[in-house]
Design goal:
Blueprint lengths: L1 E5 L3 E6 L13 H4 L3 E7 L15 H14 L5 E6 L1 H12 L4 E7 L12 H14 L6 H15 L15 E6 L6 H10 L3 E6 L6 H4 L1 H13 L13
Parallel strand pairs: 2-3, 2-4, 4-5, 5-6, 6-7
Antiparallel strand pairs: 1-3
Helix pairs in contact: 2-3, 4-5
């Protein structure tokens, strides 16, 4: 795995989306490196990280991040995950709960169908994946198809399973995100300690369109104790 480390302080792991790289966090790394030890990673089979296997799952990648944290002697960290990185963040918190202090995810989904993903985009992903199956399977095609397969057939997480996410979680999405806002809401409702933040006039790239606000709100979330609001306090 290829990774870069910036700054000093409490560890913060950044996990990018499908087909992305560390470069996707160019608006976050300088900001958070002022107060955190930022660990920016190219996920398996993406960016500068290699992968020679034929298959790829989010569970494999979540375990990769756990192994990297062990290698770096990081007992626990904050996590920001975008898109597929949000899925990986959820699975890291589920499979290795001791590793995640707080989790901020944007544009994540639990399953691959049109109840979670914008129908036109999902059909395009399926169609592109089918088309790639019909051309010569040169290494570049195989690599692309492996990433598309990931989105066509994965993830497969139930809302009930999200009770395993025991850390405070900030669930984020755009009101015009390719991940349907009702699905983002379902994720937030299923996590025991979760806040929901839907950004107006935004698609999937919340941390680019609203980079300054995103960074500030996420940092405030990391710094402040999680607060459960009950009863008449909801009127405040």
């Amino acid at each position: 795995m290829y990774y870069e480390v910036y700054g000093a302080g409490k560890p913060l792991l950044l996990i990018h989306g499908n087909g992305g790289s560390i470069e996707n966090f160019k608006n976050q790394i300088p900001y958070f490196a002022k107060n955190y030890k930022v660990i920016a990673v190219d996920s398996r089979a993406q960016g500068k990280s290699i992968d020679t296997s034929d298959s790829l799952t989010y569970e494999m990648m979540a375990d990769d991040f756990n192994a990297l944290l062990n290698q770096l002697h990081v007992d626990s960290c904050y996590v920001i995950g975008w898109s597929d990185g949000g899925i990986n963040g959820l699975l890291l918190a589920m499979r290795h709960p001791e590793k995640v202090r707080k989790l901020a995810i944007t544009g994540a989904n639990l399953w691959p169908d049109t109840t979670a993903v914008d129908p036109s985009l999902f059909q395009w992903i399926v169609s592109t994946n089918d088309s790639l199956a019909k051309v010569p399977q040169i290494p570049a095609v195989k690599a692309q198809k492996k990433l598309l397969n990931l989105m066509v057939f994965n993830p497969n997480i139930s809302t009930a399973a999200l009770k395993l996410v025991t850390c405070p979680t900030l669930v984020i999405g755009g009101d015009n995100d390719v991940i349907l806002p009702k699905h983002t809401l379902a994720i937030a409702e299923a996590i025991p300690q979760a806040y929901l933040w839907i950004l107006p006039n935004s698609g999937h790239s919340t941390l680019i369109r609203y980079k300054d606000m995103f960074n500030q709100v996420v940092e405030d979330f990391f710094k402040m104790p999680y607060r459960k609001i009950n009863g008449m306090a909801k009127l405040d």
